[in-house]
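Second attempt. The first submission of Dihydroorotase had a stray character pasted in from the spreadsheet, which I only caught after the job came back as garbage. Lesson logged: always re-copy from the clean sequence file. Corrected sequence (447 aa) follows.
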Amino acid sequence: MNRTLIKNVKIINEGEIITGDILIEDQLIAEVGTIDNVPTNTQIIDGLGKYVMPGVIDDQVHFREPGLTHKANIGTESKAAVAGGITSFIEMPNTVPQATTQALLQDKFDIAANASYANYSFMFGGTNDNLEELLKTDPHKVAAIKLFLGSSTGNMLVDDEKVLEKIFSSTKMLIAVHCEDETTIRDNLASAKTMYGDNIPMDFHPKIRSEEACYISSSKAVALAQKTGARLHVFHLSTARETVLFRNDIPLEEKKITAEVCVHHLWFDDSFYKEKGTFIKWNPAIKTKEDKKGLWKALLTDKIDVIATDHAPHTLEEKSQIYTKAPSGGPLVQHGLLAMLEATHHGILSLEKLVEKMCHNPAILFQIEKRGYIRKGYYADLVLVDLESPQTITKEGLLYKCGWSPFEGTTFNSEITHTFVNGKLVYNHGKFDDDNRGMQLTFTRPS
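This time the job returned cleanly.
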């Protein structure tokens, strides 16, 4: 049996911070508290002055494999994720080919089993014509169904309202959605092209992919979920207006309609377009300071349930093109937790609330088995953090295959020092256990 004891550490878990020890035996947490009788042959890590939290569960990433591996792959991006304190990720289906059949979905699981440093699951992609295949999805092994109600790739835009209602009515799986109204976006883009051609100024992005486009789509999705009783999770809210669609008067376990916000929508606003340009071009767009303020308010009052990254890398060459040609998305897994820890330094977000939104709630929302908490018998997915170790993000320190970050030049006050995945110390002060591989996530749901 392999044992590790983390001693003298401040444990952030379940709404409180306590000083204590954590004993790991093989893959699991064996004991939490004051541990005096240390078994022989135990590796000891002194965490004095550090905090430990459950590993982050990132419920929305794009790791680009298969088919888009010039941008990223599961190996490189999961390695960056582990360095960023993310021990489990859920990856999206819009790869090449798209994960819209059970066989293609299994191909992604097979790749991750051989390549992923972190624990993993994937979403099955819905289309206008694959309902029969969608209904074969195993709720114990697959995170969710993903529907693009806007900003799709390939044939993944689900815009047939009869098909949408059929999907919502037919599956008991959680349905995760990207909500932007395509008609509104097309009209706004056409108007901008009339004025500027293809070289549209970047600050038009939130006008093209507007508040109205987001609200029309997200409100329709919520109404359809209410009508059908479907379990709905709305990805990456970007506007204050959308937050009124969600409730905070019942526990998360009882919610059938939930919401996520991403790090970039909490960190940036439209004043950054002048400096960052296409490097902060995301869909949905980063919007106004008032929108950012409204998102923070909704997060802190529990209308928004989860913080994620929507990590979606592209090459420097791709992102350096003019507005209409530069793709949307950027790399975030290595620095998403650091950015949110910065909010704790500024008194915006407590450490307990950060852990709730990035660790506990994804586990609750997706019904992930034995993860997201520091509890006896749970998998030992743990992150040690030094809150008083400033660092400036440089290109040389980036682990993303794309080789750039929107946070380059940013100084964070914290450092992630250790990351355990299933009881193994996979990341230790910049060094990796390159032999360790994560596990496929499982889910405690009825069939």
